[in-house]
Amino acid sequence: MTPDHDRSRSPAGRTALPELLRGHRRTAGLTQAELASRAGVGVRTVRDLERGRSVRPQRTTVELLAAALALTGASRAAFLAAARGSAGVESSRPDTTLTAPVGGATTSEAAPADPPIALPPPVTLVGRDRDVTELAGMLTAERGPRLVSLVGLAGVGKTALATAVAHTAAFAHPAGVAGVLVGEGSDGPDVLAASMAVLGAARLPDLVARLAGRPALLVIDAVERAPDPVAATLHRLTGALPSLRVLVTGRHPVGIPGERVWPVAPLDVPPPGTENSGAAALEAWPAVALFTSRLAQVRREPPTPDELPALAALVRRLGGLPLAIELMAARGRLLDLTQLLDRYGDRVLDLATPADPAVHPGWDAPDALTRRSSGPAATPAPAAVTLRDAVATSYRLLAPEERAALRQLAVFDNRWSVELAEEMLADEADRDGAVVTDPVPLLDRFVELGLLSVRGTGSFRFRLLDAVRDYAVEQAAGEGELTRIRRRHAEVIARLVARTATDLVGPRSSDAVQRLDEMSSDISSSLVHAATDDPLIALRLAACLTRWWRFRGRDVAGRQWLRRLLADPRTADADPVLRGWAALGVSRLSAEHAAGAEELPTARAALDIFRQAGDVTGELEARNVLGTLLLSVGQQDEAREQAETALRMAARNGRTRDLAVAQNSLAWHEIRIGDLAAARRRLAAADRLAAESGEQRLRVLTWANRAEVARLEGWYADAVDHGRRVVAALSELGDPGLRRRVLGKLGLALAQDGRGAEATEVLTELRAAAAGVVSARAPGVAPRPRSEDAALFSGGAEAGLCALIEGNLALHQGDRELAAEWFAAAADDPGQDRRDVVEALVGLAASTANPAVLDRLERICQENGIRLLPQESGLLYALTAARGVPEAR
Known about the structure:
By secondary structure, this protein is mainly alpha-helical. The protein has 44 helices and 11 strands. Residues 1-15, 86-101, 103-114, 355-359, 364-383 and 774-797 have low confidence and may be disordered.
């Protein structure tokens, strides 16, 4: 404590107020709390006066203290004089003591010349700049609302925001800015008296005269403690004082006409994956910035790079709730962030406040004033209050049907739409949908209470706060309804995915992928639950996800799900077409990780199902997938037959997109036999048809194949330009497997063109992408692999492509021995495409001049019907001439 705050004598030699007050209190045998209770002031007011921290006490405060101390005559006069002397010495500024708690009636003398701010000082806010600006704008606008209510959960930061807004808006309220903290048990006269007192009057007519039409701002904190008295007080004050504006905080709105409700949302949290961008990018998110600032108060070291994933996961798990963030960060004194996540990640609702939450920071403690009692026995010891208790208070404000709806919506893991809420809340007995439940009034109620976050402009912009979700799920489990709700959730998600899956092909493909991305966590949780509870729902859901899984590099986990569900005896009697689509999904995904040979029978079985059912769409898809698998096992002739049959079917049924797919497939067969001109023609036709169908993803695929034709023809610069264009497009569209392959071909074109530095950069990127394949293929939730699934985790063709690039780089540098090593590795890679194996063997033969390599090359070409290109034959001319045999065909 500095000397300035602990004066015992005034400059004039009189006994100072702190010493007098302390002496009279001790003489009376009272504690600070007992004196505060008798006087009807805050205990902090007494404490600050005795410590010399409050040097400008209000006259009414001093008079109340004198009366409580039973001072009379000379003692009273000296006490009042000491108070006046203290104020006169310290400052000539008008009285600006802090807020008054409800229960202590005070009065004031003439209005000050400058606008006083009788509020706690503002705290530094994180992530609230926009809120402060917009709210202050409302309170200062000429036609702005007269009453603004900040509503939200306990701990979301309502009081701190209100204080900051009031300080910001103070310039527009020359009659003053003051605040009242409502206490439990306050009645109408309490609230009215305290509100008038902090504004400088004891009676309403006096307050009308004091303000004289000048703008004033009143802040009322914690209105939920006495909602009816606060509403009655505000009705009287706003009716009598047209120049008064009021800013209130509470768990729910006041509920009087003209009120503007402002839900206070938690802080924004970083989406998954942001932690990979580094500490600076992570700290740009307000929830992270608050956590790290509070963590810095208990430990000196900032989060390490290894802690960043745990940091991001923690603030997401805490839902951006400031109180929860501060409580969690305080535990960082003993535990690192990874330990915090492991220990408390599933126990967020158990986080406890260290003291009585009735005491709001910066306000006088209200206990002795609001409980209408005196003596130390009337004030209970502070008790820890958990986040569960805080959420329960808001939950109890809901009507029974509102609570039931909240429990049902709590199973959504991420953001959802009004339409999904409507499906979720529909009467399960109403199979025909004759009874429509409008969820909008319910959602509005949840927003009104600060339970629901609404962000963004798209359909999927609603999300329950994390603490609210956790609490509601607990309540659903307690009511014995959680299993039923989760089954309903799985049905709703399955219907959403089925509606969306049809758009995964065609012009709306990108939008459909994004929609499923937004529901990714709900899709995963629905699969996990339904696979046990109702595997038929799970099968319907999984069968529609094949393309999305492939586009997002989740082919291994997707194939595992489909195989598990098809093997479940409870799905054996499912619709054969549904099982056909699931089997086709298994086959399609197997091709992404070089497991096509295993699923050839599965693809044939799916084709038979669609043919028997007369399902043209299914048959076309099955022939396309079957052709891909046949190519991977060297059965090129049958693969071409499948593509040609699909082309005829598509033409016969007017399927433009399927025509493009078939032409694209046949282009590879032209490349196989060395007819690059025919391949170009087919790809040009495929590009045109894809454009007519409106599917950008299919066009990008044709561009990738045209880039490969350019490379095989030796037009390396064109191949590089086209390849870069395709890689950029696939970065936006998805399909990481195709992007890696195109990236490899781009590196190969660069190496063959002698652009070593650029090829090396591509190699680095390709290897980094390939290294993340296993983790990328595990989508956060997957069925436990069975022993026969071990082969699913083998890599793709990236290793062979990397070796092929390295071989060409070494060849251009004149290092034939090193080139031979790389070409041999590329040729031996079991996941390598047959055409790439031929290219590797040509490089190996040219590097070593080994006749044995020619034998192997000839055998591969004959088995797969591959014809060497002119430039490949040129490289091998001397070697084949020396052997006296015809070139490999």
